Amino acid sequence: MNIDFHQDETLAENDIKVLVSANKLSPQVINLLNQLNELNDSINENKVLPVSTDDRVVMLPFDNIIGIEVYGNELTIYSIEQEYTTNGKLKSVLNNLKPYHFIQISRSAIINLDHLKSMETAFSGSMTAFLTNDLKLNVSRKYLPELKRSLKM
C-alpha cells in the first residue's frame, strides 16, 4: 500500500478529503474503507457546545445550531429548537465551531453552513443569508469572499 499526501488549496481550511484508489474493490479495500468511515464517525460524534443560561448548562449539539449573533458580550444562539442567550465572545465560540461547517459572515455573526438555505443580494454589496427556521442574517462584504469559497462558488 502506498500512502501519498496531495495539497489541495481548493478545500476549506479544515476539510480533509481522502481518496482510496485500487484496481478493484477487494475485501482489503472494503476493510480500509470501513475503518476510514469509523474514524470519520468517531471524529464527528459528541460535538456539543455547552451553553450557560440563567441557572443551568445546556449541551447543544453542533448540528442543531443554526447561527450565533453577538451584541456586546451577549451571545444569541439560534438552534433548531429555541434561542439561547448567554455571555461570551464570538471569536472563542467560532474557534470551537469552525472545523464543523461554521463560518463567520459578519463582525457579529456566524452561521452553520448546513442550515444555509439561500442568499439574496442586499444593499451596498452585502447579502442576506436565509437559514433554517426563517432566520435571516446579514453577510457583510468583508466576509463574503470566504463564504463563497466555502460554498465553492
Automatic annotation (TrEMBL):
It comes from the Bacteria. This is LytTR family transcriptional regulator. InterPro entries: LytR-like (IPR046947), LytTR_DNA-bd_dom (IPR007492). Residues 49-153 form the HTH LytTR-type domain. It holds the Pfam family LytTR. PANTHER family: STAGE 0 SPORULATION PROTEIN A HOMOLOG (PTHR37299:SF1), TRANSCRIPTIONAL REGULATOR-RELATED (PTHR37299).
